[in-house]
Specification:
The complex is a heterodimer of chains A (about 625) and B (about 425). The mean pLDDT of chain A is about 85. Chain A has about 625 residues and is α+β, with helices and mostly antiparallel strands. Chain A folds into 3 domains: about 170 residues, Elastase, domain 1 (Roll), CATH 3.10.170.10; about 190 residues, no CATH class; about 180 residues, no CATH class. In chain A, the strands form 4 sheets. In chain A, strands 3, 6, 7, 8 and 9 form a 5-stranded mixed beta sheet that branches. A 4-stranded antiparallel beta sheet of chain A has the order 10-11-12-13. Chain A has a two-stranded antiparallel sheet with strand order 1-2. In chain A, strand 10 and strand 11 form a beta hairpin. Chain A contains 21 helices and 13 strands. Chain B is of the alpha/beta class and about 425 residues long. Chain B folds into 2 domains: about 325 residues, Metallo-beta-lactamase, Chain A (4-Layer Sandwich); about 110 residues, no CATH class. Helices cover about 35% and strands about 25% of the residues of chain B. Chain B contains 15 helices and 18 strands. In chain B, the strands form 3 sheets. Chain B has an 8-stranded mixed beta sheet. Chain B has a 7-stranded mixed beta sheet with strand order 9-10-12-13-14-15-16. Classes of the chains: A alpha+beta (about 625), B alpha/beta (about 425). Strand 5 of chain A pairs antiparallel with strand 11 of chain B, so a sheet runs across the interface. Chain B: This is MBL fold metallo-hydrolase.
Chain lengths: ~625, ~425
């Protein structure tokens, strides 16, 4: 706890500054640089650190021992931006994982326009020295990110000493990557069911993207990059320190390093199956878009600095120019990452593909920035196209073709047979947004009780409009997986409140396997995006075949045509899922021996295992 | 040219392979024994007990002696498809020392003079030994019966892939009648492609050797998983006892008796809720590595097609996905394995040892697929996989299981020359080739 020796007492600061390696111990050693991470000051932070959102548990399962938890409110620690990071002091490791995690979460909050909370307010646990091993992964069952440590050997990067201890928890990239997995899991819990090859690939790509763009948060570092690359930033190697120190020995970052900055090849994406490689192509495309917008954004600065020619002279850039360009580079990273993150709420609740991601990002961005004044959307669509990433079946890459679909007729949450009373939802979402509200007020038991009726009403509404949403009115299992109001700012600077609802329906009748608990669950799902008056603006369905398709004959047009399309799409999706399960079974050496489906053995732990096969 | 006969006798040791193949034309006869082993947990039930592999060995030798003009048991070829116990354990039996053998055929990975092979073999043995050690470590002194199923399975893979020293010595070093000088050992496939079609002393009969592949990409699949090395490193950290080094200066570690006062209770609770102890030796990773090892060894299987005047008999050992891919990718090889009169179902009928897309075309209508399998309770739903056997039947094959041969032999529009031995010790089909 903070000491209060002054009278009258001095209030707690707004921000807490903590140091970390830039971006891992090896590169920090070479550059002599540390990052100073600026995060919100949590009052009441306990030793661990143990805060409102995360809890650092420094127990080593291999050595069966605890390491002394750090107290970040200790005055000597507070007075010097946290402990100086050191490989030999585990308390500084605790500080690093806490600081990076909080900074990633804070960035998410900014982009999504709402305060971040874990499901059921169950904190994420960070275990910086969980075990001896070349791995670090998010474990949804343990609700934890587990970091391994290991001794370097001859195959590890040259700049390390043989047999030196390597701590995955000290890499900014690895921490940011793993925490992003946890955040994605919070927002789309069913993305751990690998119903197609993109589901985990998306998880990986998104985590890499956040880690990569997180580098731009640190102004000193960006200024060095800008100065060194003479504003080009194109030398990907400098920017892409993504887990460099750990890259080779943990098998991380390899596909990413080879993809980012490579020449686009439209056929490569289609031909690639392996999740990390597919994900890397997506990240590379976003990075291409970043560079394209960045170049157009700094063109004026270059002209100003060169008397209109735009051709920089020899020698070092002026520090003023570097500062201005670096600021632009950072702002641009925020724009691009923000655009992708905002798309998140527009993703389907299950079975995501990269094609869905493109549509979600474009739809979200168009809702907020209809004019695309700085051509951000245009650059992104073009970069994705050049790398072969676009939704199957689209005939044009104009915004119109890439948007999600509107309902076939006007649809409103507050009207019809099963209306939803949205008042409480909007009120609660607003309370959660208020930084001065306590956790208890925002998400305590009472708040949860209050939200129950709106959830059950919404489930009834979904059943009443099932065919429209790609769900099956004849089958059981309707569930509201998530429902919230987001207040994102648009081009006009105004908040644009939107209601985001994730609906799912488990279709046990289509699942294969005797044991309903261990077999792979199949969900139909639909994300509904509505205005706060209840009118539905977009629907994002993931249908499955209807149990009684003949019901559709009685529907009026145009609902009938739409519902038939959904039913057929559902049949295609089910076929695709089954084929994919078969592929996974064929590749899985355990498939013969165990009843549990091979797909459920795809976990973050197994995906992050170094060069297994 | 008179009619030739091909007789295939499948012995039933339980969960294991043992096939006697006899090709005859008039007075010329050629005999091959393909594998002889049983899984340690899969012996066939007989009466109140189970059938020891020695009974199968004795029956094979007695049969050979009976067919021999001078009463001395004799085989033209002994082939061991791969080193798993359920294919070679029977060769440890000393009774083999009296059998005269013309040639021993082994997959090239067993070749002591082949550098690629030696590396793979050492890797496999080391991995198996390391996995065995780690499984024992993870079990922490508990008796085998009380092991968690995942761990027990990992251990089985390790034991099955481990060295079968006596069997290997007999096969590689000349443990049959007359010793090493009396017969040749052939490691297949040969580097010289033309030697992978072996002419037999019967008019119009040859054996094609289609696998294991020597392609470097495929060799990588036969390599033991590198994950074993990482796991071993982790296990080493546990193993050290007092010698184990701390990773930080001891002043940062909290001694056990001070945890209560120095670590906040909220953190201790969080640790307990996470059940972290399982992380020290990751059993899921152990099992995964062990299963990759199991598949690696399966994919070293000899893949043989006996061709008698255009009628083909396919023996695939335990080739799994990967290894099959190599065969099917070669049009000539793919043609040899489809439309066969006989197919020895791969890996006891498990699902990825018979590729689904071609399963219905492997055996011609009226042909025979034999499944060397005895039910092992734990795998009863997956081995053999009924969908694979159904697909073979759909293609017109008669599917004969070692543990219930009569059920599969009936039906079809032609009568099958089919016999079953006493106590179900063997089942036999005979084909006549014009």
């Amino acid at each position: 706890m903070l000491s209060t020796n002054n009278v009258p007492a001095v209030g707690a600061p707004d921000r807490r500054r903590l140091r970390a390696f830039a971006f891992d111990p090896m590169s920090s050693r070479l550059s002599g640089q540390f990052l100073t991470i600026d995060i919100a000051f949590e009052t009441g932070l306990q030793p661990g650190p143990d805060g409102e959102l995360v809890q650092v548990v420094d127990y080593d399962a291999t050595r069966r021992c605890w390491y002394q938890p750090v107290d970040l409110d200790d005055p000597p620690v507070l007075a010097q931006d946290g402990l100086r990071p050191s490989e030999s002091d585990p308390r500084s490791h605790q500080q690093v994982v806490y600081a990076i995690t909080m900074s990633v979460i804070e960035r998410f909050q900014r982009f999504t326009g709402r305060r971040f909370r874990w499901r059921g307010d169950e904190r994420l646990r960070l275990v910086p020295h969980a075990f001896y091993g070349r791995n670090a992964y998010f474990d949804p069952d343990r609700r934890a990110v587990l970091f391994g440590y290991y001794r370097a050997d001859d195959s590890d990067t040259q700049a390390n000493l043989p047999h030196q201890l390597m701590f995955t928890c000290l890499s900014v990239d690895i921490v940011a990557h793993e925490v992003t997995h946890a955040i994605v899991h919070r927002m789309r819990p069913l993305f751990t069911i690998a119903t197609n090859s993109d589901v985990y690939a998306f998880h990986e790509a998104f985590a890499d993207l956040v880690a990569l763009f997180h580098h731009f948060l640190f102004r000193d570092v960006v200024e060095d990059f800008v100065a060194a690359s003479r504003s080009e930033l194109a030398d990907a190697a400098a920017l892409l320190s993504l887990a460099d120190e750990f890259g080779r020995s943990t098998g991380r970052g390899g596909p990413l390093r080879s993809a980012v900055g490579s020449a686009p090849d439209a056929a490569a994406f289609e031909a690639t199956r392996e999740p990390h490689r597919r994900g890397a192509i997506f990240v590379a495309a976003v990075f291409d878009a970043y560079l394209a917008t960045y170049k157009s954004q700094i063109a004026d600065l270059r002209r100003l600095a060169t008397g209109g020619s735009g051709v920089l002279g020899d020698g070092e850039l002026s520090p003023d120019l570097v500062r201005r360009i670096a600021a632009e580079a950072t702002r641009n990273a925020d724009r691009l990452l923000g655009m992708v993150v905002r798309g998140f709420d527009y993703l389907p609740p299950v079975d995501v593909t990269f094609g869905d991601v493109v549509r979600a990002v474009i739809t979200a961005d168009r809702d907020l920035f209809p004019d695309d004044a700085i051509h951000l959307r245009g650059h992104l669509v073009e970069s994705l196209r050049r790398r072969g990433i676009f939704p199957p079946g689209v005939v044009s890459l104009a915004d119109q073709a890439l948007l999600w679909r509107r309902p076939s007729r006007a649809l409103n949450l507050t009207e019809g047979d099963a209306p939803v009373d949205l008042g409480q939802l909007i009120l609660d979402s607003t309370i959660k947004l208020d930084a001065s509200a306590t956790t208890q007020e925002a998400a305590g038991l009472a708040a949860r009780e209050r939200s129950k009726p709106v959830f059950s009403q919404t489930a009834d509404w979904a059943r009443a409009h099932a065919l429209e949403l790609g769900l099956d009115p004849e089958a059981p299992g309707f569930r509201v997986l998530g429902m919230h109001v987001g207040y994102q700012s648009g081009a006009d600077g105004q908040p644009h409140p939107r209601i985001f609802i994730q609906l799912v329906q488990r279709r046990e009748d289509l699942e294969i396997g005797a044991d309903r608990d261990t077999r792979t669950r199949l969900y139909a799902g639909c994300t509904v995006i509505a205005h706060v008056d209840g009118s539905v603006s977009w629907i994002v369905p993931k249908p499955l075949p209807l149990t009684r398709p003949e019901l559709l004959d009685d529907l009026p047009e145009p609902a009938r045509t739409r519902a038939r399309e959904q039913h057929r799409a559902g049949e295609r999706r089910l076929r695709g899922i089954r084929e994919w399960f078969g592929e996974v079974e064929d590749e899985d050496p355990l498939a013969i021996w165990l009843d549990e489906p091979a797909v459920s053995r795809l976990t973050f732990a197994s995906l992050h295992t170094p060069e297994e096969d | 040219m008179s009619d030739a006969t091909v007789t295939i006798r499948m012995y039933n040791p339980g969960f294991g392979d043992c096939f006697l193949v006899t090709v005859a034309d008039g007075t010329a006869t050629w005999r091959m024994l393909l594998d002889c082993g049983v899984h340690s947990h899969g012996r066939a039930p007989v009466g109140d007990g189970t059938r020891p592999i020695g009974d199968v060995v004795a029956a094979v030798i007695a049969q050979l002696a009976e067919e021999s003009p001078d009463g001395r048991p004799r085989l033209d070829v002994v082939a061991a498809t791969h080193r798993h116990s359920d294919h070679v354990s029977g060769f440890a039996d000393d009774a083999w020392a009296e059998v005269e053998v013309g040639e021993v055929w082994l997959p090239f990975v067993e070749d002591g003079r082949d550098a690629d092979a030696t590396a793979i073999r050492h890797g496999l043995v080391e991995s198996a030994t390391a996995l065995e050690r780690m499984a024992a470590l993870a079990a922490d002194g508990r008796p085998l019966e009380s092991w968690r199923p995942e761990l027990a399975l990992a251990m089985e893979f390790a034991v099955n892939s481990g060295p079968n020293l006596e069997a290997a010595a007999r096969l590689v070093d000349g443990g049959f009648a007359g010793g090493a000088d009396a017969h040749a050992v052939r490691f297949l496939p040969d580097r010289h492609q033309e030697r992978n079609r072996v002419a037999l002393p019967i008019d119009g009969a040859a054996m094609h050797v289609l696998g294991p592949s020597r392609d470097p990409e495929q060799l990588k699949r036969m390599d033991p998983p590198s994950a074993v090395r990482w796991l071993e490193e982790a296990a080493g950290q546990l193993d050290g006892g007092d010698a184990r080094s701390d990773i930080f200066d001891p002043m940062y570690a909290v001694p056990d008796d001070e945890v209560g006062e120095r670590v906040p209770i909220a953190l201790v609770r969080a640790r307990d809720a996470m059940r972290l102890s399982g992380l020290a030796l990751d059993e899921a990773a152990l099992l995964r590595a062990a299963s990759i090892l199991e598949r690696s060894v399966n994919n070293t299987s000899l893949f043989l097609v006996l061709d008698v005047r255009g009628t083909r008999f396919v023996f695939v050992g335990d080739s799994q996905y990967g290894a099959w891919q190599h065969v099917l990718d070669d049009p000539h090889a793919a043609e040899l394995v489809t439309g066969a009169a006989f197919y020895k179902v791969g890996h006891h009928g498990s699902h990825n040892a018979t590729p689904r897309p071609v399963a219905a075309e492997l055996v011609r209508s009226g042909g025979v697929a034999m499944v060397p399998v005895g039910t092992v309770e734990r795998w009863k739903d997956s081995i053999p996989e009924s969908a694979i056997l159904d697909t073979l039947r759909d293609g017109g094959a008669r599917v004969i299981r070692a543990d219930d041969p009569e059920a599969g032999a009936g039906g079809g529009d032609r009568d099958l020359a089919f016999r079953v031995g006493p106590d179900g010790l063997w089942s036999e089909v005979r084909f006549t080739v014009a």
